[in-house]
């Protein structure tokens, strides 16, 4: 059975995408710890990060760095966190999020009830920041 992330990637489920290329996508999580919390996901379904092809993992990290730079620009956070957990969905994904202190790294504090308008505003900010940084070819149209 396809993972929920594969279903989002294929368009079977909705997603707020900020990045799409042949190997990796990035979209806002439905339960952010802070505005701009984005998941960087390989298109290929791999359950655990230590099993992923090293070149694909490197590409995921490269995209996570670009997304992190955009998150920092858009949300003016002093630090950008990145976590790999994998308990919630068995498909490798990197959490990229703005952080003002270590409490931001607690995924248990994620808010699944974030209003759609807040999520849409974060989407607009991140897409603009990625375009401004020169990554427009990978940013979906508004």
Folded structure, characterized:
This protein is α+β, with helices and mostly antiparallel strands and 142 residues long. It has a single domain, classed as HIT family, subunit A, CATH 3.30.428. 32% of the residues lie in helices and 18% in strands. The chain contains three helices and five strands; from the N terminus they run H-E-E-E-H-E-E-H. A five-stranded antiparallel β-sheet has the order 1-2-3-5-4. Strand 1 and strand 2 form a beta hairpin. The longest helix is centred in the middle third of the chain and has 22 residues. It is globular.
Helix-strand layout with pairing:
Blueprint: H1 4-10, E1 17-20, E2 24-28, E3 38-42, H2 54-75, E4 79-83, E5 94-99, H3 116-132
Antiparallel strand pairs: 1-2, 2-3, 3-5, 4-5
Helix pairs in contact: 2-3
Protein name: HIT family protein
GO molecular function: catalytic activity
Organism: Speluncibacter jeojiensis
């Amino acid at each position: 059975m396809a993972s929920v992330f594969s279903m989002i990637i294929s368009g079977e489920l909705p997603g707020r995408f900020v990045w799409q290329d042949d190997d990796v996508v990035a979209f806002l999580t439905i339960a952010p710890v802070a505005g701009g919390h984005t998941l960087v996901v390989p298109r290929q379904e791999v359950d655990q990060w230590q099993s992923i092809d090293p070149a694909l993992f490197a590409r995921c990290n490269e995209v996570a760095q670009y997304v992190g730079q955009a998150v920092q620009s858009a949300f003016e956070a002093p630090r950008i966190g990145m976590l790999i957990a994998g308990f919630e969905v068995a498909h490798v994904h990197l959490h990229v999020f703005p952080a003002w202190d270590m409490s931001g790294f607690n995924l248990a504090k994620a808010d699944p009830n974030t209003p759609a308008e807040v999520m849409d505003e974060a989407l607009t900010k991140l897409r603009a920041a990625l375009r401004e940084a020169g990554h427009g070819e990978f940013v979906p149209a508004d």
